[in-house]
């Protein structure tokens, strides 16, 4: 896992919250990861590291990264792989799709860091 991303998540949410994130998921409402303004800013700041983490996970599952992200529960199957690709690889737009997908990817990073820290 990218140490810069890991440290950024820990600074944002606090190490004490990681166990709760790991047990209950990011949608439980954790400081710094509640509002789109916060989660989307976090995603934009760490887009490359989050994309690499997602690609690594998808590869380990034998799945396409865009298809994996499209299957995130918090996205509800509402977005195509093309829309997800635009959020990952094209310039940011402040529209609903970018906000919802950016939020989901910030939560993904939060949950993966929490899992990594709690497992080790």
What does this protein look like?
The protein has 120 residues and is mainly α. It has helices at 3-13, 18-24, 36-45, 47-61, 65-70, 81-89, 96-119. It has one domain. The chain is built from seven helices and no strands. α3 (36-45) packs across α7 (96-119) and α4 packs across α7 (96-119). The protein is globular, with a radius of gyration of 13 Å. The relative contact order is 0.21. The model has no long low-confidence stretch (mean pLDDT 95).
Give the arrangement of secondary structure elements.
Layout: H1 3-13, H2 18-24, H3 36-45, H4 47-61, H5 65-70, H6 81-89, H7 96-119
Helix pairs in contact: 2-7, 3-7, 4-7, 6-7
General form: globular
Q: Mind telling me the C-alpha Rg?
A: 13 Å
Count of discrete structural domains = 1
Instruction: Report the end-to-end length measured between terminal Cα atoms.
Output: 12 Å
Sketch the major β-sheet.
none
Number of helices: 7
Low-confidence stretches: none
The ordered string of helix (H) and strand (E) elements is HHHHHHH
Residue fraction in strands: under 5%
Structural class: mainly alpha
Task: Tell me the helix content.
Answer: 55-70%
Number of strands: 0
Mean pLDDT: 95
């Amino acid at each position: 896992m990218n140490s810069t991303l890991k440290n950024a998540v820990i600074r944002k949410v606090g190490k004490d919250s990681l166990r709760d994130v790991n047990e209950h998921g990011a949608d439980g409402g954790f400081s710094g990861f509640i509002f789109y303004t916060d989660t989307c800013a976090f995603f934009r700041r760490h887009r490359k590291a989050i994309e690499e983490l997602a690609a690594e996970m998808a590869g380990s599952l034998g799945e396409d990264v865009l298809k994996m992200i499209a299957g995130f529960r918090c996205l509800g199957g509402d977005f195509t792989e093309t829309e997800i690709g635009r959020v990952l690889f094209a310039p940011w737009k402040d529209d609903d799709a970018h906000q919802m997908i950016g939020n989901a990817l910030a939560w993904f990073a939060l949950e993966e860091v929490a899992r990594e820290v709690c497992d080790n």
